C-alpha cells in the first residue's frame, strides 16, 4: 500500500525553523515524529489547558440579559 501524504500550512518562519532541524537524509516526517516523541502529548496538552484556564479566569462575558436581548 502506498503511503498517503498531507500538506500542512506553516508560516515562513516556522518552515525555516523546521528546515534547520532536518539533517542528513532525514525526511520532514521523521523530524516531526522525533520532535513529537520528545515532547509527550501530556506535556503539550497541559500547556494548552493552562493557557485556556487563564483565558477563562480573565474572561469578561456579557450578562445573560444582554445575550437574551440580542436575540430579539
What this model shows, in words?
The protein has about 70 residues and is mainly alpha-helical. The chain has one domain. The radius of gyration is 21 Å and the shape is elongated.
Structural class: mainly alpha
Q: How many structural domains can be distinguished in the coordinates?
A: 1
Q: How many runs of DSSP E, i.e. beta strands?
A: 0
Oligomer: single chain
Overall radius of gyration: 21 Å
Q: Low-confidence segments, ≥5 residues, pLDDT <50?
A: none
Reported for the largest beta sheet, the result is: none
* First and last CA, distance: 56 Å
Order of helices and strands: HHHH
Mean pLDDT across the residues is 89
- What amount of the residues lies in strands? under 5%
Shape: elongated
Q: Fraction of residues in helices?
A: 55-70%
Q: Total number of helical segments?
A: 4
